[in-house]
Amino acid sequence: MVNARLPLIAGNWKMNLDHMQAIATVQKLAWTLDEAKHDAGASEVAIFPPFTDLRSVQTLVDADKYPIAYGGQDLSVHDAGAYTGEISGAFLARLGCRYALIGHSERRQYHGETDETCQKKVEAALRHSLIPVLCVGETAADLEEFGASAVPIGQLKAALDGVSPDADIVVAYEPVWAIGSGQAATEEQAEQVCAALRATLAEMLGEDFAGRTRILYGGSVKSSNIASFMRQPNIDGALVGGASLDVAEFASIVRFYKHVI
Predict the structure, then answer these.
(1) Which of 31, 51, 130, 205 has most Cβ atoms within 10 angstroms of its Cβ?
(2) Is residue 261 predicted with pLDDT exceeding 60?
(3) Is residue 211 part of a domain?
(4) Contact (Cβ atoms closer than 8 angstroms) between residue 128 and residue 118
(5) Structural domain of residue 176, as residue ranges?
(6) Which PROSITE patterns is this protein grouped with (predicted)?
(7) Domain membership flag for residue 1
(8) Is residue 2 in some structural domain?
(9) Is 250 within 8 Å of 244 (Cβ atoms)?
(10) Domains in the chain: how many in total?
């Protein structure tokens, strides 16, 4: 591997699969990885099911000791109170979640989440010992107007304002123009932005923080292109969307290391 950071392959299920389907999918994923002799020391696998699935996933993973981490697709800036429909980080922590997605492009687009909201959600996640997976990325219009890294860097700086250099976070670069389009960024495009994000982390929080923080690429990731991304020195994994619902495909992405020299 290019660096010592443990690669992370994360599957965002979005609003798909009820709790019974989640049980079947997690079982099949675990069995598929086991049959393929997946090396958990070569890449970490995590899934982000809908909130209603998390208790079922927790019970299954704990009972069968599956080497699969999981997290919430979102969390509230509040810990408790009169906030109908919100999900507290405390609830996610009690369900055994390791991660929480923050600032996904769909949350920004459809729910009006701002950089300030994302900053508060990062704080909320860290309060409950969850690892924030902070999503940053530009639209096609942003790309044309500002260039490839300006918007993601601005989002990163805003969301990590006040974060301690001792914190554990993950950054996911997801060019919005590539998500679900079937047209991923090239590995060179993704590496350029991820390198700029790492340089920004170093400026904000120090070289040690930047050196240990994993930066993922997300946007039309599939088994046929994951190896090319993972050859890049500043890409430490992938945030996978639709392909994570196909167990065979996702398991193949998780095992990218078989194809990276």
Answers:
(1) 130
(2) no
(3) yes
(4) no
(5) 8-258
(6) TIM_1, TIM_2
(7) no
(8) no
(9) yes
(10) 1
